[in-house]
Specification:
The protein is of the alpha/beta class and about 375 residues long. Helix content is about 35%, strand content about 15%. The strands form three sheets. Strands 1, 2, 3, 4, 7, 13, 14 and 15 form an eight-stranded mixed β-sheet that branches. Helix 2 links the parallel strand 1 and strand 2. The longest helix is centred in the N-terminal third of the chain and has 17 residues.
C-alpha cells in the first residue's frame, strides 16, 4: 500500500468515525454445509498446516472435518489488512485492534451470530465485549490471540536484560561498548507512535499522557520529536517477521520491538536472543477473526471461527506464535505450549498492556489516525 493511498484511506476512516453510524449485515441463522473453500487474511504464523514444522498444524484437521480448503494470504501490517479487506475476495481476517474498528466503521466486516459458535462459551472473560470488536451491541468476530509487543535483544550484547526502551529510542553505547546507531529497529506502522508515547508517559510525566492512543497536540509533538530523534539510529523499520529474524541473525541488530513469534523462531534456530517487557511497560494487541461483509464462504467461515476456539488449537497457536490463547483452557490443552507456556508468554500481563486501537479525534480533543499515518511516513523518510 503506497504512502499516499495509506494516508488518503486513513483520512477517510477518520471522517467515518466522526460522521457515520455502523449498520449490521444480515447474519446467518444456522450453519449449513461448507462451501468447500475458505480464504483468510492473517498475520504470519497464525494459520499453520505443518509446512514450517509438522508438529504445528491446525488446518489439516479442519479441512478433513469440514471439507473447507483453507487458503491464506499473509499481511505484515494492520494497514495492509485493511487494504486487502477493502479490495475484497477474502472471507476472514485476523485483525488487530488498530484495524478492527476501521473495518467495522468502513463496513468491510459483518456482525456474527455467536449462538452458532459453540466454543464461544469458553472465551476468556477479559475479552468478552471488547470495545475493539463489539460496536452498538453487535459482535464483529471471535477473539483469536493476544500478546505484548516485547523488546527483543541479543544476549551476546546484553549480558543482563535491558530494563528500558531507551536502548532503541535514545543514542547510547550498548553493554558491548558499541553505539546503538544502526543496530536497533522500530515497527513500520503509524501505530508505533503509541510506543513512543508510552515511553514518554514514564520518563516525562509532566506531559500528562494517560493513554498512548489519545494524544493532544503537545503530547503528540513530543512523541514525534522522540521518533525523529530515533530515526538516525534505525537499521530498518520492520514489518516482515522473516526479515527481522534475518536481521538479528545476519545484520548485527541488537534490539527491537518484536513479537513472541520472532523470539521463538530465533531461539529455535539457536540464536542468542531473549525478550523482556521494560519498566515503562509495553503496547500489545488483541486479534479478532472477523468475517468480510461479502464473504463468499460464510458457512466455512463460521466453522473456522468455532474450530479456532478449541482449547488445543488455541494452545498450539500460542506455542507457535509466542502469544496467549483467547480461551483459558488453551493454556492446559496443548503439549506444544506446555504447562508453563502461558506464564512465559505473559498471561498475567493483560492489565498492564496498552492494547493497539485506532486513534480517534473525539471532537478534536486528540490527534486523529490520519495525522499519525502522514507524520510517521514522513519520519521514516527522514523528514
Amino acid at each position: 500500500m503506497s504512502a499516499l493511498k495509506t494516508a488518503l484511506f486513513s483520512a477517510v476512516v477518520t471522517t467515518m468515525f466522526t460522521s457515520c453510524g455502523v449498520s449490521a449485515a444480515e447474519m446467518l441463522s444456522k450453519v449449513g454445509a461448507g462451501e468447500g473453500q475458505l480464504d483468510i487474511v492473517a498475520w504470519p504464523g497464525y494459520i499453520e498446516r505443518g509446512e514450517s514444522d509438522k508438529a504445528y498444524d491446525w488446518v489439516t484437521g479442519f479441512e478433513k472435518e469440514t471439507g473447507c480448503k483453507v487458503s491464506v494470504k499473509t499481511a505484515a501490517t494492520s494497514d495492509e489488512m485493511v487494504s486487502l479487506m477493502a479490495k475484497g475476495g477474502y472471507d476472514l481476517v485476523t485483525a488487530s485492534g488498530d484495524a478492527s474498528l476501521r473495518l467495522i466503521v468502513g463496513k468491510r466486516v459483518q456482525p456474527i451470530n455467536t449462538a452458532l459458535i459453540p466454543n464461544w462459551k469458553d472465551l476468556d472473560s477479559r475479552l468478552k465485549n471488547g470495545a475493539w470488536y463489539v460496536v452498538n451491541k453487535q459482535t464483529y468476530g471471535t477473539p483469536y490471540q493476544w500478546g505484548p509487543n516485547v523488546l527483543m535483544y541479543n544476549t551476546n550484547v546484553f549480558a543482563t536484560p535491558p530494563t528500558s526502551w531507551n536502548v532503541v529510542f535514545e543514542q547510547q553505547n550498548l553493554p558491548d561498548g558499541k553505539s546503538n546507531k544502526g543496530r536497533v529497529q522500530a515497527y513500520d506502522g503509524p501505530i508505533y507512535i503509541a510506543d513512543a508515547a508510552l515511553y514518554l508517559k514514564s520518563i516525562k510525566p509532566e506531559l500528562g499522557i494517560k493513554n498512548p492512543y489519545e494524544l493532544n497536540e503537545t503530547q503528540y509533538k513530543a512523541a514525534l520529536d522522540l521518533l525523529r530523534q530515533q530515526q538516525p539510529l534505525i537499521h530498518r523499520y520492520w514489518h516482515d517477521a522473516t526479515v527481522q529474524m534475518s536481521d538479528f541473525k545476519n545484520e548485527g541488530v541488537a534490539a527491537s520491538s518484536s513479537w513472541g513469534f520472532m523470539v521463538n523462531g530465533l531461539k529455535t534456530d539457536k540464536q542468542p536472543v531473549a525478550s523482556v517487557i521494560p519498566k515503562e511497560g509495553a503496547t500489545g494487541w488483541v486479534d479478532t477473526t472477523m468475517m468480510h461483509v461479502d464473504a463468499k464462504h460464510p458457512n466455512c467461515a463460521y466453522k473456522w471461527m468455532d474450530w479456532s476456539l478449541q482449547p488445543k488449537v488455541q494452545g498450539d497457536v500460542a506455542a507457535w506464535f509466542g502469544s496467549l490463547p483467547s480461551v483459558p483452557e488453551g493454556c492446559k490443552a496443548s503439549e506444544l505450549l506446555g504447562a508453563e507456556g502461558c506464564a512465559a508468554n505473559g498471561y498475567d500481563l493483560y492489565d498492564k498492556l496498552a492494547f493497539w486501537k485506532t486513534p480517534q479525534a473525539e471532537g478534536g480533543k486528540f490527534v486523529p489516525y490520519s495525522r499519525w499515518t502522514q507524520d510517521y511516513i514522513a519520519i521514516m523518510g527522514g523528514r
